[in-house]
Amino acid sequence: MNFYYAISGTQRAFIPLSTNMDFTNILEKAGGFILVAICWGSTNPFIKKGTIGLEQVSQKYPEGGFKKWFAELFYLLTRWQYILPLALNLSGSVVYYYTLGKSEMSLAVPITNSLTFIFSLLTGLLLGEDLGGKVIAGVLICVGSKA
């Protein structure tokens, strides 16, 4: 029988490795993480592009209030360039909650968020977005704090 060493807080134990936790189970979890990251990360730049023109709608209502909110909402909900990526993004949330139920949160959250950032960055570059110095500095700070 195979065992793995588990550390949880101050407790340490050898836990039998069940045959159900095999390679396919690991692939299912990893596939869920990657699918969520693709759904979230690759749609973020498209959602941003879908909001182009929202500023003009907002400027028509300088006093703000319900009329401005309704006009902005109507503008966004009538643009397929916004709705389609948003629907794909939200479907990633469904997959995320399913994946969370089958994996440890301490693994799911950092893996998914890191991959989401990478897919957002790559999709933004493919769409011609400028990285800018702030993004590069932020990445360097995050990587440097982990080293």
Structure description:
By secondary structure, the chain is mainly α. The chain has one domain. 71% of the residues lie in helices and 8% in strands. The protein contains seven helices and two strands; from the N terminus they run E-E-H-H-H-H-H-H-H. A two-stranded antiparallel sheet has the order 1-2. A hairpin with a 2-residue loop joins strand 1 and strand 2. Helix 2 runs antiparallel to helix 5. The longest helix is centred in the middle third of the chain and has 23 residues. It is globular and about 60 Å long.
Shape: globular
Total number of helices: 7
Cα(first) to Cα(last) distance is 36 Å
Mean pLDDT: 82
Which key phrases capture this entry?
single chain, 147 residues, 7 helices, 2 strands
Brief overview:
One of its GO terms (cellular component) is membrane. Keywords: Membrane, Transmembrane, Transmembrane helix. This protein is mostly helical and 147 residues long.
Topology readout:
Layout: E1 3-8, E2 11-16, H1 23-41, H2 44-50, H3 54-59, H4 65-77, H5 80-102, H6 105-126, H7 132-146
Antiparallel strand pairs: 1-2
